[in-house]
Each structure stands twice: as C-alpha cells, then as structure tokens.
Design brief:
By secondary structure, the protein is α+β, with helices and mostly antiparallel strands. Helix content is 40%, strand content 19%. The protein binds adenosine-5'-diphosphate (ADP).
Length: 283
C-alpha cells in the first residue's frame, strides 16, 4: 500500500480534479483542475476541511485519502512495544507487560478499522460489495454489539427494546454488526454513554421491514448539521481521535446495499436517533 489510496471516483484524465486529504478530512493539496472547478486558487484550498471545500460541488473531483500517516503511527507503536517485549522480556514486570499488550491490541484494532473502512469505501463505490445473507435477529445482534462495546466503554448503559412480532431478516450479519457498532460507538463518542435505547420494531408493508433505532440521550445534532452527517468526511469537530467522518457514509451504503434506508432525527432538546430499516425479503 502506498502513501495515498484512491477513495474517490478515480481518473486523472483531462478535466478531472484531484484533492488529497488527511484522515481528519483536512485538504493537503488540490490540483489545478480541482481548484478551477471549485473556483478558488489551489493554495486557498489547502488546510480547509474537505466538506467545506466540496460543498455540493464534488462531482468529478477525486478525493484521495493520505492514509500513510494514519497507518504508520499505530504500526510504529506496535513495533516499538513488541521489540521492547522481545528484547527485555525478563526485565519487564507483569503489570507493564499487560499495559504494553493492551496498547498493542488497541493499535492493531485501529489499523484493522482503517483498512476495513478503506476496503468498504472502494467496494461501495465500485458496486462490488458482496453480501452473504442469512437469517439474522436484529435485537440479538444489537445486544451482542452493546456487550462488546461495553468491554472498552464500561460506562455504556443501553437498553434493547423489542416490539411485538419482530421477525428475523435476511442480512449479512457482519455488515449489519458494523452498522450497529458505528451507531452505538457514535452515541458513546458524540452523545452520551448513559441512557442509550435501541428499539427494534416491525414495519408493515409488502414485504415489510424491521426498523432499528439507536437513540441516545446526548446533546443531539444541530439542525444545520443534520443534512450533512452522512456526507463523506463530515465531522463536526475535526481531528477527533478515531474519527474520519466516514463511518456514517459507509453505514448508509451498507444498509442501502441491503435494500434498506438509514436516516437520522434529532428533535431540539433530545438526543440523536439513527434509524435503519432492513426489508423482510432479500433485495
Ligand atoms: P466518524 O467516523 O468520524 O465518527 P461519522 O460519519 O460516524 O464520523 O459521524 C459524522 C459526524 O456526525 C460526527 O463527527 C459527529 O459530529 C456527528 N454525529 C454522529 N453521531 C452522532 C450522535 N449520536 N450525536 C451527535 N453527533 C453525532
């Protein structure tokens, strides 16, 4: 893997602009075609957030993520700790070993997450995402996601409420687990770890669907941000640890690939509520 990876519609042909962004969504450089298309000198684009720069005019501009640094820093940390452990094993106390192994595990998870996000992006963009559907109980999946997130966020308090007659749905359970993980982690990161409620209910229709709502008791999302939260690279505060602004964009793509929808509501004075539906028949 090189220092950059194409995540936008590729193409370096005449008239195609190209913008390079870091993982926080800040523009590192823009070529002349992109600058011309956006009506601003390239030098003025650098340093700004890519969602501000692109606005609604992203057509025909390839957004390229510079992931080299993002991958390199956890890998450097993993190599540092592993060589320390290998070379000084006898001299390091058990408590320190435990701390180092915990850090290695954390860094490895970060690398895995980044790589998975990048793979999902290119599969979603090229329409080459393959789903392996089986019958899935969404309330059970939600409960297991909550349990595993609680392992790293012990503050998490969540209730899973299941409506009457909620059937299993045909879905790729790994992909939907990823969506639920993203929604619950976001609730913890941006909302509140306390008072989370996950509701599953049957939506009538033919074929009908199951709707799952992840409702947090945080501050919610400002009305002006609501239409943008699913945009690629959108982050309200840039440079948050573990944030790329890609999570919701990917989640929406994964749900839509199943023939469902992912939407958000955030009434004033309430937390954010993300709802996805999955149809009762495979797309
Ligand atoms: P990231 O991968 O950086 O977490 P996401 O695409 O998952 O990005 O989310 C985009 C933005 O939407 C976040 O930066 C945050 O500002 C906002 N957001 C997402 N979920 C919530 C929530 N539950 N409460 C408040 N803001 C949220």
């Amino acid at each position: 893997m090189g220092h950059t990876m194409t995540t936008g519609s590729t193409g370096s042909g005449a008239g195609t602009g190209r913008i390079v962004v870091d993982s926080g969504g800040t523009v590192l450089e823009a070529d002349d075609a992109a600058a011309e298309r956006l009506g601003r000198p390239a030098a003025e684009l650098a340093g700004r957030s890519v969602s501000d720069v692109l606005g609604s005019g992203a057509d025909g501009i390839a957004v390229v993520a510079a992931v080299g640094h993002e991958l390199r820093s956890p890998l450097t940390s993993i190599r540092g700790y592993t060589s320390l452990l290998l070379n000084r094993w006898e001299k390091i106390g058990d408590a320190d070993k435990q701390l180092m192994l915990g850090q290695i595990n954390h860094d490895a998870e970060r690398v895995t997450r980044l790589i998975n996000e990048l793979l999902d992006i290119s599969r979603l963009e090229t329409g080459r995402l393959t789903l392996t559907p089986r019958w899935v109980s969404l309330p059970e999946l939600a409960q297991s996601v909550v349990t595993s997130i609680r392992a790293t966020s012990p503050d998490l308090e969540a209730e899973v409420a299941v409506g009457a007659d909620v059937p299993e749905v045909p879905a790729d359970s790994d992909k939907i687990e990823q969506v639920l993980t993203n929604l619950v982690e976001n609730a913890v990161k941006y909302g509140s770890p306390k008072g989370l409620r996950i509701e599953a209910e049957l939506v009538a229709g033919s074929p009908g669907a199951v709707a799952v709502t992840v409702r947090d008791a945080g501050e919610g999302i400002a009305p002006e941000d609501l239409p943008r939260v699913f945009d690629r690279w959108f982050q309200r505060e840039h440079g948050r640890p573990n944030g790329t602004g890609l999570g919701l964009w990917i989640s929406r793509g994964l749900v839509e690939a199943h023939g469902g929808q992912l939407t958000v509501a955030s009434p004033p004075g309430e937390g954010a509520a993300f709802t996805f539906t999955l149809p009762l028949a495979s797309p």
